[in-house]
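Section 4.2 – Deliverable D4.2 (structural model, holo form)

The reporting period included a commitment to supply a predicted holo structure for the target in complex with L-Erythrulose. Inputs used:
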Amino acid sequence: MKLAVTCTEMDVRKGAPIVFRGKLEDSFKKIKNIGYDGVEVHIHDSSAIDRKELKALLNQYGLELTSIGTGSAYGKEGLFITSEDKQIRDRALEFLKQHIITASEYHHAVVIIGLIKGKVSDCSSKAIYERNLIESLNQCIEIAKKYNVVLGIEVLNRYESDYLNTIDEGLELLDKINSEHLKLHIDTFHMNIEEANIGEAIRKAKDKICHVHIADSDRWYAGHGHYNFIETIEALHDIGYSHALAIESLNYPDANVSGEYSYNYLRGIIYERIKK
Ligand code: LER
Ligand code: MN
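Output (structure tokens):
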């Protein structure tokens, strides 16, 4: 299991769960010094970034790109892939396509489909929402297949999304779509709210999990709250999960302290419990 941490060059609000902000090079330097294996970069518009420069920076600091956060298209521009307005839907899909192209240069850089999937309440009915969701996901999958990228649909808590709140619901959706290019992306903060038995839910999902977000129960760094990380890490180990645990927490009291605490706390559990 690898440890990664979120970072972005976007202007994000203080309480957003992204740890390192500001110039990527400065963040990468600090992230590497802490000991992390990789980074999850939150990008607004992938077509506007210098992909070569991103790759060069990652190589320079020996960091893996584990995932791309895509939610700002929804947050900043109101774009979502279930919209009944075809123009909005197509623009959201184009954003995802550009992220897929960015991800295609890396071994396992998951393109996250979280907030960009939109909400049932943004549509006139649940049936329309589901129809649009499946249609759009299938379009994304075609592109992901072409570029050999995995899409991770994120299971979010009920206060942030009115659709896909539990791993079970995620598995039901995957059954309907059935593609190796669409898997589940889980998040400890959301699981803490929604899952009756987190270990059991993870074990049930098996190889359908492609990415994991980490924050404690209060969304601070791992170790600050009362989330049972031992249970989650043991369950992930049991299902052979070998990808990243990416810290997506508040950066309180500051990015360095928060990044360092999460790293040390999780490294300790991984070392003690799974001897790696
Ligand atoms: C995004 O990964 C997420 O977990 C949401 O709660 C948005 O912040
Ligand atoms: Mn998340």
